[in-house]
Amino acid sequence: MELFVKMALQAWDVQIKRTEKLINSLSDEQLLQEVAPGRNRGIYLLGHLIAVHDAMLPLFSLGEKLYPELEEPFIKNPDNVDLVVTSVKDLRERWTTIHSKLSEAFNAMSAEQWFQRHNTMTDEDLQREPHRNKLSVLMNRTSHVAYHLGQLMFIRHD
Hints:
By secondary structure, this protein is mostly helical. The chain is 63% helix and 0% strand. It has a single domain (2-152), classed as Four Helix Bundle (Hemerythrin (Met), subunit A) (Up-down Bundle), CATH 1.20.120. The mean pLDDT is 96. InterPro entries: DinB-like, DinB/YfiT-like. Residues 13-152 form the DinB-like domain. It comes from Chitinophaga oryziterrae. This is DUF664 domain-containing protein.
């Protein structure tokens, strides 16, 4: 059990670090570009990932969201060039903050905790579907960040 958790956490860390490296290599202006014509901008994808990862705090009983105001523009709605929620600089800082908090919390969790239910499930749900646990959410979010990292790679590098 511990081996599976270690592997999942390592995969999460790799994708977060790869994404952070790319984000840090792009200028604010580059992050304002669309990843492809008619597609999301880098700033939207960055805000989206922060909002999704922030939602993991209450989902895993690790505390309240740090940035609940990001849910509306970055999860519930598509990219909108006319909507200015915050700056790229601010999102970069929020990226660092949320991932530091998640890393600390994740590393403090026992292997048994990873196989427990998350907060959108009941105990009965977990009995019926034990594979729908915190670890499965982490694995899903790892794939999610990898998917958007692939999109971010299409931003022009000057």
